Amino acid sequence: MKFPRTVTTLAIAAGLATVLAPAAAADTVASLDFTAEQGAHPVSGRSGHWTASPGTEVRVWENGGTLRVDAETDHGFDYITLDFTAASGPVQAGTYGHAEGAHILAVSNGLGCVDDYSTFTIDHIERGTEGLVALDATFEQHCGSPTSPALRGEVHYRR
């Protein structure tokens, strides 16, 4: 008698997996890839590829003219926040630099840098009625001086 129940349970589980598969495909995908040279404040000497997984979370959103990336791993014990701001107005596709008044605020594990010499490129940005829908960006941040060690990386987001 146990055999028919097992077959029925497996059939129900397979049916649920098939029904729920489209919902999983529509999930938000976000990632942060970064490499920091030794001395690159505030992320000195670290690198990583952070994407949604058990213990890691990456969130991307827009508030006013600022794009924000919040990434954390080790259940929040290690985190990086990056704010990308243009000199005026919302960030659009293009390259932004310190000379034009754009900047990156980088915060990691309680340390931060806003006095930076940075550039970032928005390769793709898409907005919908509910806000940010897609983003592909690269960045390079130097804290305190244009010759300071660099934090470099990429952000990818799809909702």
Q: What gyration radius follows from the Cα positions, in whole Å?
A: 20 Å
Distance separating the two termini: 46 Å
Q: Which stretches are low in confidence, meaning pLDDT under 50 for 5 or more residues running?
A: 3-25
Assign the structural class, choosing from mainly alpha, mainly beta, alpha/beta, alpha+beta, or little secondary structure. Answer: alpha+beta
Strand order of the largest sheet: 2-1-11-10-9-6
**Separate helix tally:** 1
Bin the strand percentage.
Answer: over 45%
Mean pLDDT: 85
Major beta-sheet overview = 6 strands, antiparallel
Helix content: 10-25%
Describe the structure.
- The chain has 1 helix and 11 strands, in the order αβββββββββββ.
- By secondary structure, the protein is an alpha+beta fold.
- Strands 2-1-11-10-9-6 form a 6-stranded antiparallel beta sheet, with no helix packed on it.
- The N terminus is likely disordered.
Descriptive labels:
globular; single chain; 159 residues; 6-stranded antiparallel β-sheet; 5-stranded antiparallel β-sheet; disordered N terminus; alpha+beta
